[in-house]
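User: Show me a protein chain along with its predicted structure.
Assistant: Here is one chain, sequence first, then structure tokens.
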Amino acid sequence: MVLGATPEAEYATGSVALAPGDMLLMYTDGLVTRPGDDVGRGLSRLVRSLREDASDDLQASITRIMRDLGAPNPRDDTCLIGIRVPEAVRSAG
């Protein structure tokens, strides 16, 4: 069920541990789907964009993903939210 689609919807909860340097992306289907195109192709484009991204800058990564996937999608809503866990800071001592 799409989040927020109906007030009666129930959702399971879960958790995942993120390590330093990890990035978590949450997006609507408008990022990866296009009329007449298979969702698998859109997901493959997203994975390819992520693999080519060497930036530690979250905003630069999101900008690149949006560009690579042709977002915003004029036929569907497109939302991409991301967080990146900072790398551990090493002490100088």
